[in-house]
Design goal:
Helix content of chain B: 25-40%
Number of helices of chain B: 7
Strand order of the largest sheet of chain B: 6-7-8-3-9-10
Radius of gyration of chain B: 17 Å
Number of domains of chain A: 2
Number of strands of chain A: 4
Largest sheet of chain B: 6 strands, mixed
Number of strands of chain B: 10
Strand content of chain B: 25-35%
Strand content of chain A: 5-15%
CATH topology of chain B: Rossmann fold
Strand order of the largest sheet of chain A: 2-3-1-4
Number of helices of chain A: 12
CATH class of chain B: Alpha Beta
Distance between the termini of chain B: 27 Å
Structural class of chain A: alpha+beta
Radius of gyration of chain A: 31 Å
Largest sheet of chain A: 4 strands, antiparallel
Oligomer: heterodimer
Number of domains of chain B: 1
Shape of chain A: elongated
C-alpha cells in the first residue's frame, strides 16, 4: 500500500514536470481562480473590518433637561445598563460637555468668545448609549420613547452614522453574494480547463495506460498518478497565489492606507494568512482531484 | 481451463465478430488460432484477458465465469495471463530491464524482488547482456523477447500471443516460436493467434481455424489450412 502510494506520487510528480507547458497552463488557470477567490475574501474581510470600526463609532446621545438632577440621570443610566442589547452607557456631565466643546472649538475663537459672553454653561448633561449591534438602535430608540424617565429627556440624537452603516451592511451582503458567484464561476472554468489538460496528458500517455492495464495494474494504480498531478497543480497554484496576493497588498499599501485609514490590509492579510492559504490549498486540491477524476474516467472503463 | 460456452460477440453497428463459439482449452495445451484478418482471432483472445465482454454466452477461466469477476478484480485476472502482441507494446522511454520491472512495480512488488527476478527472466529469453538497452536500440526479434519476458515475469498460467511474429523476419519468427514452445514445455498454456502458415505448421500442435467468426476446423494435430 505504502509502496504503491510512493510510486504513484513519484510518477504524478514526474508527469507534472515533464509536461512543461501543459502544467504551466493548468497552474495558471488554477492561479487565476484561487487569486480571484482569495482577493474577494480579502475584500469581504476588509469591509467587515470597516463595518466593525464604524459600528463602534455609532451611538445614541440622550440629553436631559437642565432641571433634572444628577441622581435621576444616574438612575436612568442604571435602568439602561440592564438591557442586554446595550453594550455601554456613558454619563457625560454638563461640565465635561463644556470642556469637550471648548476643546473641539479651540481653533474658532468666535465661538469661544460667544460662550464667555453667555457667562453660564449652556450645555446639557447627557448619556451616550452604545448598542451591541447597529440594528438594535431602533429598539433602543423605541424604549426611550416609552421610558419612565421620558419626561426628563430634552432630546435624543441618533448617531449620524447609522444610515451609512445600514447601507454598508447591505453592500457587504451583496459583495458576499457576488463573490460567491464569481468564485463558483471561476471554479467551474478551471475545472473544465484542468480536466482538459489532464486529458491531454493522459492522451500522451495512452500507450502507457494500455500497457499498465495489460500487465495487470489496478485502476487505482493507473488513476493515482493523474490525481496527484492534479493535486500538485492546486498546491503550486495556491503557493503562488498566496505570495502574489501578499506582493500586491504590500506594493499597494501606500495607496490603500490613504483610502481606508482604519484598516491595515497587510496586517489583516498576515493575521489571516493561515486561513487564506489553507482555503486555497483545499480549493486547489479539490479542483485538481475532481478534474483529474473526470478526465481519467473515460480511459478506465471495462 | 478455458471454456467458451455459446459465446457471441457483436460490436457496434451489428458487426458480428464471433458467433456461437464453443471451445475448451486444457491446461498445458499449445493452441494455434488461425484465420484471415477479421475472422475473430483477436476477439477470442480479448475475451480471455477480459478486455472485451461477450454479448452472449459465457467465458470460463478455471472454474470461474469471467462475468462474475468485478471490475476491481480484473487486474488480478490479467496478472495470471501473459500477453504478447505484434507491435510489442513496449514503453519506449524505458530500458528492457525497466519495461519488465514495470510489470512488477504496478503490482506492488518490492524493489529487492524486482532486482532478483528481472535479470533472471531476461537471461531466459536470451537478453542477459542487453538489459539496459532502450527498445530503439534493439532489433524487432529482441524487442519481442523483451515483451515475452514481461509476459512471463508474473509466472502466468497462460500466455496469449496475438500475431507475435507479424513484424519479424523469418529467423526471428522462428526464434520466438521456439521460445513459445519452450515455455509450453515447462507447463504454461500457450494460445497463439497467427496467419503465418509456416510457423503454425512447424509447431504441429492443435489448430483451430476461424472464418467469419465461426470455428470451422479444430484438429488436435493440425496444420494451417482452409477447411
Amino acid at each position: 500500500m505504502l509502496l504503491t502510494l510512493g510510486r504513484t506520487i513519484k510518477s504524478g510528480w514526474v508527469n507534472f514536470y515533464r509536461n512543461g507547458y501543459l502544467s504551466v497552463a493548468a497552474v495558471s488557470v488554477m492561479l487565476l481562480c484561487l487569486f480571484t477567490v482569495s482577493s474577494l475574501y480579502i475584500i469581504v474581510l476588509t469591509a467587515d473590518n470597516i463595518l466593525q470600526n464604524m459600528q463602534e463609532k455609532v451611538n445614541i446621545s440622550v440629553y436631559f433637561k437642565a432641571s433634572v438632577s444628577e441622581e435621576a440621570i444616574l438612575n436612568a443610566k442604571k435602568n439602561l445598563d440592564n438591557f442586554s442589547e446595550i453594550k455601554s452607557v456613558e454619563y457625560i456631565t454638563k461640565e465635561q460637555a463644556l470642556e469637550n466643546f471648548k476643546k473641539n472649538s479651540a481653533t474658532e475663537p468666535v465661538i469661544l468668545q460667544s460662550l464667555e459672553e453667555i457667562g453660564e454653561n449652556p450645555l446639557l448633561s447627557y448619556l451616550v448609549i452604545q448598542a451591541n449591534n447597529a440594528n438594535q438602535y431602533d429598539l433602543v430608540g423605541e424604549y426611550l420613547q416609552n421610558a419612565s424617565f421620558k419626561d426628563e429627556i430634552s432630546r435624543v440624537n441618533y448617531g449620524k452614522n447609522k444610515e451609512i452603516i445600514d447601507r454598508l451592511n447591505g453592500i457587504v451582503a451583496e459583495v458576499r453574494k457576488i463573490g460567491l458567484g464569481i468564485a463558483g464561476l471561476f471554479s467551474i472554468i478551471s475545472l473544465l480547463i484542468i480536466s482538459n489538460t489532464v486529458r491531454i496528458t493522459i492522451y500522451t500517455h495512452r500507450k502507457e495506460v494500455e500497457v499498465m492495464r495489460l500487465v495487470g495494474a489496478s485502476n487505482n494504480y493507473i488513476r493515482l498518478p493523474f490525481i496527484f498531478e492534479g493535486i500538485i497543480y492546486g498546491f503550486v497554484a495556491s503557493v503562488i497565489s498566496t505570495l502574489l496576493l501578499f506582493i500586491v497588498l504590500k506594493t499597494s499599501q501606500r495607496f490603500t492606507t490613504h483610502l481606508i485609514p482604519s484598516v491595515n490590509l497587510v496586517s489583516l492579510y498576515l493575521s489571516n494568512l493561515l486561513v487564506i492559504f489553507g482555503m486555497q490549498i483545499l480549493i486547489g486540491a479539490f479542483l485538481g482531484t475532481l478534474s483529474s477524476w473526470f478526465a481519467i474516467r473515460k480511459y478506465l472503463k471495462i | 481451463m478455458i471454456r467458451f460456452d455459446n459465446v457471441s460477440k457483436i460490436y457496434k453497428d451489428d458487426y458480428v465478430a464471433l458467433e456461437n463459439i464453443n471451445l475448451e482449452i486444457n491446461p498445458g495445451e499449445f493452441v494455434s488460432i488461425v484465420g484471415t484478418s477479421g475472422a475473430g482471432k483477436s476477439t477470442i483472445l480479448k475475451l480471455i484477458y477480459a478486455e472485451e465482454a461477450p454479448t452472449e454466452g459465457q467465458v470460463f477461466f478455471g472454474e470461474k465465469s469471467l462475468d462474475s469477476i468485478s471490475r476491481k478484480h480484473i487486474s488480478e485476472h490479467r496478472r495470471s495471463i501473459g500477453t504478447v502482441f505484434q507491435d510489442f507494446k513496449l514503453l519506449n522511454k524505458k530500458t528492457a530491464f525497466e519495461n519488465v520491472a514495470y510489470a512488477l512495480e504496478v503490482c506492488g512488488i518490492s524493489k529487492a524482488e524486482i532486482l532478483e527476478d528481472v535479470p533472471q527472466i531476461l537471461e531466459i529469453v536470451g537478453l542477459g547482456d542487453r538489459q539496459h538497452k532502450f527498445p530503439h536500440e534493439l532489433s524487432g526479434g529482441e524487442q519481442q523477447r523483451v515483451a515475452m519476458a514481461r509476459a512471463l515475469i508474473h509466472k502466468p498460467t497462460v500466455i496469449i500471443a496475438d500475431e507475435p511474429t507479424g513484424n519479424l523476419d523469418p529467423t526471428s519468427s522462428l526464434e520466438i516460436m521456439q521460445l513459445l514452445l519452450k515455455i509450453n514445455k515447462l507447463g504454461t498454456t500457450v494460445i497463439l493467434a497467427s496467419h503465418d502458415k509456416e510457423i503454425v505448421n512447424k509447431a504441429a500442435k492443435r489448430v483451430i481455424v476461424l472464418e467469419r467468426g465461426r470455428i470451422i476446423c479444430d484438429d488436435a494435430k493440425g496444420k494451417y489450412k482452409v477447411c
